[in-house]
């Protein structure tokens, strides 16, 4: 078929060049956005009397028919077209004749593709926010159930101080909550309409850019036509936000993989989210976590690909920018799948609470509290630190925890030890007396959970309002 730009040329494009140049293989997913944008453009052209109202009506009905036929499968998007724009326009002209040739009045493929990508990216960002909301809801439910589930907290992967599962999961809630804010921010900055910018310098037609922006749900039109067609910041910003989400998912996955090991046994993965070995019948592998961890690097690579593409481009549009789509689509698809699947997996995990508790006890996570106990009894902190260090070394040799030592054994290390030491270093006491905001004490933890529930409810309401 003839290309939309063929008038200047006297020879057909070499087939290898055409294949190299064409983008229909990957930008066909933009069909809905391309048609939606074209409908708005036609409405505006008619309202401004740039084309007749009858022509605008024919174009709009023709476009709606193409959309319906693509979605019900009766019209296939094939590789005979250069890109999604030529597919839509060629089919429109086939259906309604010369009126279809007027659709492109006052616009360029440069502002058209910029619009398509913004509409697509906005829609996918909203969908990803809903997946993040689902993950936050799952986390909050687990936090509510586990304010008294004791476990060791770690630094350097060494058992450090006692905490609760609610507190540990709450750290991830904060990460994904920040991710939610970043997605919100992305939407604010991307929500300006480039349509009407033309190739780079606007147009002589009396377009009403505010009308098309309003019809398409944008905050308003962009203010510089050169920037409008060459801006890919919104994609890079979203891919940066997705990279952070993937980093948080990867950290979480790493911990679950560790906790699922025979050495930890903190969690039991549900069969539906695990796989086995083709040779070792005893294996139950946390493949979803491992794949999420692995796919994180893939999303990072997508981000770096687009950053590298954009770093040396002069204004305004350059064909290099066609390379924005595949990494952006891949990053969006990958992150969306990972968030959704991880959330479903997390909701099915069994946490082995007694194993966690015993791990905290036998890991001397109450050693700091034992030192604090001596300080309260009048022992200087530096001396108390040394006493407890020697006590822990002795306990390791004896294969005992601190609270399994007799009072006589304890007094051999310091006469300041009394019977009340046992209550002071119990996991319950160690956790419950940590009441500063952000600490794992059940009282403060429940207060934080209530605040998080209120925030999540408000955020979900705002998301619902934006979609409506």
Beta-strand residue percentage = under 5%
Main sheet: which strands, in order across? 1-2
Give a short account of the largest sheet: 2 strands, antiparallel
Terminal-residue CA separation: 41 Å
Number of domains: 3
- CATH structural class of the largest domain: Mainly Alpha
Radius of gyration based on Cα positions: 30 Å
Average pLDDT number: 94
CATH topology name of the largest domain, in short, is Fumarase C, Chain A, domain 2
The CATH level-2 architecture of the largest domain is identified as: Up-down Bundle
Number of helices: 19
Query: How many strands appear in the DSSP assignment?
Result: 6
Q: Which parts are unreliable, with pLDDT below 50 for 5 consecutive residues or more?
A: none
Structural class: mainly alpha
């Amino acid at each position: 078929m003839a290309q939309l730009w063929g008038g200047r040329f006297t020879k057909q494009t070499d087939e290898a060049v055409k294949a190299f140049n064409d983008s229909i293989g990957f930008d066909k997913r933009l069909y809905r956005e391309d048609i939606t944008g074209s409908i708005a453009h036609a409405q505006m052209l008619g309202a401004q009397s740039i084309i007749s109202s009858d022509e605008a009506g024919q174009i709009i009905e023709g476009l709606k028919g193409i959309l319906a036929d693509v979605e019900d499968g009766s019209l296939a998007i094939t590789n005979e077209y250069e890109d999604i724009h030529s597919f839509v326009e060629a089919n429109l002209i086939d259906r309604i004749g010369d009126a279809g040739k007027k659709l492109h009045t006052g616009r360029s493929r440069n502002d058209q593709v910029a619009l398509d990508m913004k509409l697509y990216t906005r829609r996918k960002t909203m969908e990803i926010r809903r997946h993040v909301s689902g993950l936050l809801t799952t986390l909050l439910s687990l936090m509510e159930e586990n304010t008294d589930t004791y476990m060791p907290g770690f630094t350097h992967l060494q058992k450090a101080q006692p905490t609760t599962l609610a507190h540990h999961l709450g750290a991830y809630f904060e990460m994904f909550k920040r991710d939610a804010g970043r997605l919100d921010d992305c939407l604010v900055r991307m929500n300006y309409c480039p349509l009407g910018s033309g190739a780079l310098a606007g147009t002589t037609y009396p377009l009403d850019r505010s009308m098309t922006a309003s019809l398409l749900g944008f905050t308003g039109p962009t203010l510089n036509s050169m920037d409008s067609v060459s801006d890919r910041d919104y994609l890079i910003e979203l891919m940066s936000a997705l990279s952070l989400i993937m980093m948080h998912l990867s950290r979480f996955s790493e911990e679950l993989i560790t906790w699922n090991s025979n050495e930890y046994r903190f969690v039991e993965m549900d069969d539906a989210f695990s796989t086995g070995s083709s040779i070792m019948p005893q294996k139950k592998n946390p493949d979803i976590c491992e794949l999420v961890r692995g796919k994180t690097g893939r999303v990072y690579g997508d981000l770096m690909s687009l950053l590298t593409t954009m770093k040396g481009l002069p204004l305004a549009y350059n064909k290099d920018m066609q390379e924005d789509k595949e990494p952006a689509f891949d990053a969006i698809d990958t992150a969306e799948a990972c968030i959704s699947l991880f959330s479903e997996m997390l909701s099915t995990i069994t946490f082995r609470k007694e194993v966690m508790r015993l791990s905290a006890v036998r890991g001397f996570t109450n050693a700091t509290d034992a030192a604090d106990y001596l300080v309260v009894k009048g022992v200087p902190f530096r001396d108390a630190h040394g006493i407890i260090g020697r006590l822990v070394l002795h306990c390791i040799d004896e294969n005992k925890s601190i609270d399994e030592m007799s009072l006589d054994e304890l007094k051999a290390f310091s006469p300041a030890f009394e019977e009340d030491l046992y209550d002071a270093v119990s996991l319950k006491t160690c956790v419950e007396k940590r009441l500063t905001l952000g600490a794992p004490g059940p009282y403060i933890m429940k207060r934080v959970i209530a605040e998080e529930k209120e925030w999540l409810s408000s955020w979900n309401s705002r998301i619902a309002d934006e979609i409506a």
